[in-house]
Amino acid sequence: MKIALMLFLGIAAIILLKCVYKTTRSEKKIAGGMLKLLRTAAVEVMIAFFTLLFPVEWLSNLLYSLYFSNIAWMVYFMLCFSIEYIGRKPEQYINRTLVRWVLALNSISLLLNGVFGHAFSLKLYNTWGGGSCYVAVHKGYLRVHCLIVHILMTCVFVALGYQTINAPKVYRKKYFYPLLILIAVIFVDVMHHMDLNPVDITVIGYGLGTIILYYYALKFQPRDLARRSLGIVIDDMVEAVFIFDAEGNCLRINEAVHRMFPLEGGLELVEKHFSEWQSR
Hints:
Blueprint lengths: L1 H23 L6 H23 L3 H29 L10 H16 L1 H4 L3 E7 L5 E7 L1 H27 L5 H22 L8 H18 L5 H12 L5 E3 L5 E4 L1 H6 L6 H13 L1
Antiparallel strand pairs: 1-2, 3-4
Helix pairs in contact: 1-2, 1-8, 2-3, 2-8, 3-4, 3-6, 4-6, 6-7, 7-8
């Protein structure tokens, strides 16, 4: 299990770093917010990778502190990007200064865990198929940290869920699939907190969710958008428009045709006249 998890994390890190590189070259307005999210997601995945690679107690303590701290910042950047993604300004919905202060204090508290041990302790866990790694056993303060993360994640759900419901049908998958992945991440996270899954694998879900957000935000183009847009333009034209295929079948006519010509015979009549015109 340890080797497989490290393999997944390594692949996710490579993909995220590639996305970071491509996003730096993008000229889209939302690229800046996506870049912050991609960078924190890449750091998160790499921290998890090195935690598995080096099962040393003092190092694992430091890496887990960085891991938990970074995950809060990653979800915050995910929230800011989600608000931009649905066409709004984050400043209208969240107090960035306040949230950043809360996250900064949260990070400091987590980094002091090595001194006070108030957030988590470490337990050596033997994974399936051989190998071992340290897992974090949650204590009092980590519940506060989890509450902060879940509040931010709930806001992400609200933003993406609202847009999934209200977006035009052709664009709904842009918001639905990232939302679906994040729901799965929360489910796995709950299982981890209930000790049903000792090894925290939610980082893979966060990485996958970020990659999917990147794809739908910067790369996705609905396949039939051009066809629908062309159809709207054709229907709005005042001139009569007939569209035929190479075999003479009438594929489409616009409203102007109906206004100008009696078509009691339907498209078959149009095809008949077109065939006669071709034979001249």
